[in-house]
């Protein structure tokens, strides 16, 4: 008797898997599950559920630039982040001068406080100083960020920033000034100059103008007092090496190059700085 009643009982109305309290007789054209009005996504034929739409989107290969960077819509997030960090750090330094003392680079403190090799790149000495660096970053950054992708661009910027301070140490020499304070994103910006030259060459662009900009800025570093030309040189070399590696890496080896070359540069810079410190036999305070 109970089996007969169960067989005659009407079937439960179909409900949306995401909203079990909503009855829906409309079904997804891909998976056939019920889909309520809030979950329906227009399709060429009928509607689809959010899960099928997401699955289809994930199956579509990401669009890439010639150098393998993922094409993205919207603002250059990484470039804006670096600009924001520099601006915020500058404001903090105005309010609290000790902020600069704690993060600025000094060759005497470089070995005992290696974080200064990076943090100094987010500090600036004046409004003109930060404005010139951030304007250059804004003009070059978005182009490289789009061409290389966010990960490689981030690596390029940070390693060039460190390379600027490495240049200060390497070019100081045994008789150089080891008690000089260095701040600014110039090393990172010069790294972008070096990288964009090779990227433009690889993409068939005219890189002559970039050479002029680099030469002009290098000369300014020698002529205008108070500019750490060594940081410019260090950042330029690191950026050029990374830019060339990124630009001319075979498509099948781009991921390997994106990891191996930065790691190799970090090792080389660390060893070179260690050797310089050992050779001058500096007594750290």
From TrEMBL:
The alphabetical list of record keywords is: Hydrolase, Membrane, Protease, Transmembrane, Transmembrane helix
Task: Tell me where on the tree of life, at the top rank, the source sits.
Answer: Bacteria
State the GO CC annotations: membrane
Bilayer topology reads:
Multi-pass membrane protein
Known Gene3D superfamilies for this protein?
A: Rhomboid-like (1.20.1540.10)
Show the Pfam families listed in the entry.
Rhomboid
- InterPro entries from the UniProt entry: Peptidase_S54_rhomboid_dom, Rhomboid-like_sf, Rhomboid_protease_S54
Where, per UniProt, does this protein localize?
Membrane
Q: Name one GO biological process term.
A: proteolysis
> Peptidase S54 rhomboid domain: from which residue to which, for each copy?
112-245
Where would you find the membrane-spanning parts of this chain?
Answer: 77-100, 120-141, 153-172, 178-200, 207-225, 231-249, 256-277
GO terms for MF? serine-type endopeptidase activity
The family assignment reads: Belongs to the peptidase S54 family.
Q: Can you say what this protein is called?
A: Rhomboid family intramembrane serine protease
